[in-house]
């Protein structure tokens, strides 16, 4: 009986040591991406219709979102994580909830009436609008 208990203790110790080694991987980037919030991307935020039309790039994208939008929350980490990885393309953010006046102007100009919406702006003109989660994520996957 003593041998069986010793064998069980050794096996359990080996199992616990193996599990603890798996947890030592560097997950800092993953943890950072999991907790991204719009407030961390203030420099990517647009506040007026003029900001949206006359940004300094020939081609750029604007992602319209609002807090409390379940679809926006669903893709939030993908969108914000992508901003950190972009090297060439520009992705900007617009909070439709906290900018209601600009939101009315946007709806009139771009036809953006719901969130999430991704708009491609080219040459200071509205070019394309993406409104479903799948179309937004597909378009974002093409950015560099």
From TrEMBL:
Keywords: Signal. The keyword Signal applies. It comes from the Bacteria. InterPro entries: Thioredoxin-like_sf. Residues 1-18 form the signal peptide. The keyword Signal applies. This is Thioredoxin family protein. It comes from Hujiaoplasma nucleasis.
């Amino acid at each position: 009986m003593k041998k069986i208990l010793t064998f069980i203790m050794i096996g359990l110790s080996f199992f616990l040591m193996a599990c603890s080694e798996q947890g030592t991987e560097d997950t800092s980037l993953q943890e950072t991406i999991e907790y991204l919030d719009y407030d961390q991307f203030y420099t990517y935020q647009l506040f007026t219709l003029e900001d949206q039309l006359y940004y300094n790039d020939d081609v750029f994208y604007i992602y319209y979102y609002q807090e409390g939008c379940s679809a926006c929350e669903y893709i939030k980490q993908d969108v914000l994580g992508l901003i950190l990885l972009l090297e060439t393309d520009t992705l900007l953010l617009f909070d439709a909830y906290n900018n209601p006046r600009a939101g009315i102007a946007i709806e009139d100009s771009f036809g953006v009436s719901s969130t999430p919406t991704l708009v491609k702006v080219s040459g200071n003109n509205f070019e394309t609008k993406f409104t479903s989660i799948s179309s937004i994520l597909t378009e974002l996957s093409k950015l560099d």
